[in-house]
Every structure is written in C-alpha cells, then in structure tokens.
Design goal:
Number of helices: 5
CATH architecture: Alpha-Beta Complex
Mean pLDDT: 94
Number of strands: 7
Strand order of the largest sheet: 2-1-3-4-5-6-7
Shape: globular
Strand content: 15-25%
Helix content: 25-40%
Distance between the termini: 15 Å
Length: about 200
C-alpha cells in the first residue's frame, strides 16, 4: 500500500518508517504538502485533520498521528500542545530543549506521566470509517535529561522498570514498546483484519 505520511517531524518519520517498512511511505514534504493546522483540543481530532488534509492534497491514503506527553499533576499538560509547550520560536531541537526546561521548572513532586499517540489512517479525504489506533506509554518525569536518542521529551521520560529514559533506549527497542509503536501495531492489526 502506498501512503502519504502527514508529518514533517523527522523523529516521527524515522520511527513510523521503521515499523511500517513493508509499506511505500511518502512524506508529505516530498510532495510539497504543508503541515495541516492543528486547532483542536484532542489528539484524535488533530490526527484526523492532518490525515484528511494530506490525503486530499496527495490523492492517496494518508497516515497521521497526533501525540504528546500528559502529566496528570499538571492537569494533563502539555498534552496536545506538547510540541510548542514553551513557544513556537526556533528550530525543533531548540524548542525541544525549551519544552523540557519548562516542564522541569513547573513540575513538583508528583512525577507520573504518559505519552499518548493517536494514529489515524484514511483511505481518502472523506473516508467515513477512518482506522484509529491509540497507544499509551506510562512512565515518570526524570529530574534531569538523560540520553541522546529519540526526540521531544524522551530525555526526561523515565521508565522505572528499565532504569532508563526513552532517550537511552536503542531505536528498535523504543519502537517495540513506545506509544507510537503500540498504536502502529494496533493499526497493522486493523489492516490485517480487513477493517
């Protein structure tokens, strides 16, 4: 199946491409498609908006995810605003560093957190039955960043059972156990099911 991937995030492109290696995946940027607006307050609505936008522009089935870090002690923040928690200025790596610094500055003693990934596949822009899969990855927020793999909040996302942050995991290991990896596996099961 040929799919347009509705993302310009290099970390997402790498992770999704590794899991879906059997598919012909074309990043929307390779087709000159700009990122869709993400004005919604839920991961599902944003993912669906991105998938429909990319599918319409490319005239292909489209895959999109909306994901983020949720911290219950902060009322679920940064949530759908994870990528721009500390503002929209600068390149992605600089924004990631500012987002991590802000998170550490506002967090108290309650450090539980989870990543959410809502993955949506539409066969065409007006698909009335999009395939939807969700992955949730539970952990904690570390006291300081550790590791150089991954992106976003990965250097702070502590996995107590592994005694590592997500940024200390090898990419293949992360893809098996992460929120995005879980959502992709569920999506593949739906495709195999012929849903």
């Amino acid at each position: 199946m040929r799919l347009v991937l509705a993302s310009s995030n290099p970390g997402k492109l790498r992770e999704i491409g590794a899991v879906l290696s059997g598919f012909d995946i074309v990043p929307q940027s390779a087709l000159g498609i700009a990122d869709a607006e993400e004005p919604h307050c839920t991961f599902l609505e944003n993912a669906l908006a991105k998938a429909r936008h990319a599918s319409g522009a490319a005239n292909l089935p489209a895959l999109a995810d909306d994901s983020g870090l949720c911290v219950p002690a902060l009322g679920g923040e940064p949530g759908v605003h994870s990528a721009y928690y500390a503002g929209r200025e600068g390149e992605r790596e600089a924004r990631d560093a500012r987002n991590n610094a802000k998170l550490l500055s506002v967090l108290g003693t309650e450090r539980g957190a989870f990543y959410v990934c809502l993955m949506v596949l539409v066969r065409r822009p007006e698909d009335p039955r999009p395939l939807v899969a969700e992955g949730i990855w539970r952990g904690e927020i570390a006291r300081a960043p550790r590791g150089t793999n991954g992106f976003g909040y990965d250097p702070l996302f502590w996995l107590p059972s592994l005694h590592k942050t997500a940024a200390e995991l090898e990419p293949e290991h992360k893809n098996r156990i992460s929120h995005r990896g879980m959502a992709l596996q569920k999506l593949l099961a739906l495709l195999d099911d012929g849903t």
